Amino acid sequence: MSRIRRGRGHRGQTLVEFALILPIFILLLMGIFDLGRAVYAYNTISNAAREAVRVAIVDQACSTVGAEADARAASLDVNWDSDALDPCSDVDGEIDINYLDASLDGTECAAPIAMGCYAEVTVRYEFTAATPIIGNLLGTLHMEATTRQGVEFTNPDF
Asked: The whole model's pTM is what?
């Protein structure tokens, strides 16, 4: 049996192919990580809205509801700022708390909040990819999760 001898032109072929594929492979791998982070962020704000509305249907104190949403989305640095004059408004717009009447046409419930009204909590988050190339391609993703449930208990203090 005779060996086939390769010429000098084939010695660096594997290295060149590896050098061409490596950046694409790393970009794909980082894209998978960024996708996982985006799914995690959306699940976190969705869970924060869900847990906050569960508090809102039995306790109409906006500071308590906002604090619950803030605690559930703490890993994303979503902040409840209750420095506004209206106790249910959030200064930076990341968490909104509304009490809507039964028609669900956007009309606010009159105080005191009674059964038959709906509590609605919206949590917003601005997602930016960690990979610079993917971040430049996608830009900032605006994520929003809203949950609405009927009020089950009227807190006489609010």
From this structure: 0.80
